[in-house]
TrEMBL record:
GO biological process: protein maturation
Pfam families: HupF_HypC
Name used for this protein in its record: HypC/HybG/HupF family hydrogenase formation chaperone
MF terms in GO: carbon dioxide binding; iron ion binding
Entry similarity comment: Belongs to the HupF/HypC family.
Superkingdom of origin organism: Archaea
Membrane-crossing segments per the record: none
InterPro entries: Hydrogenase_HupF/HypC
Length: 81
């Protein structure tokens, strides 16, 4: 089973191909490959799978995904996502 996780873009380095985006996932900031055609800027919400940004989502969808992950994890509000 594959699972993409939601995160918030912190910064983007466009000097490489593909660009590298730093994405805040939970309490961690991870470097990811920005592999989508849509324009992404810091502050945008994205889905990351295996270190690759695979889609951009709106804030409402991001919040719903966080809520869903907290519910299925059984941790409720005990983890920061």
């Amino acid at each position: 089973m594959c699972l993409g996780v939601p995160g918030e873009v912190v910064s983007i380095d466009k000097s490489s191909t593909p660009p590298i985006a730093k994405v805040k996932i939970g309490g961690l900031v991870k470097e990811t490959l920005l592999a989508i055609d849509e324009e992404v800027v810091p502050g945008d919400f994205v889905i990351v799978h295996a270190g690759v940004v695979i889609s951009k989502v709106g804030k409402e969808e991001f919040e719903e995904l966080i809520k869903l992950l907290k519910t299925v994890s059984g941790l409720g509000g005990e983890i920061e996502l």
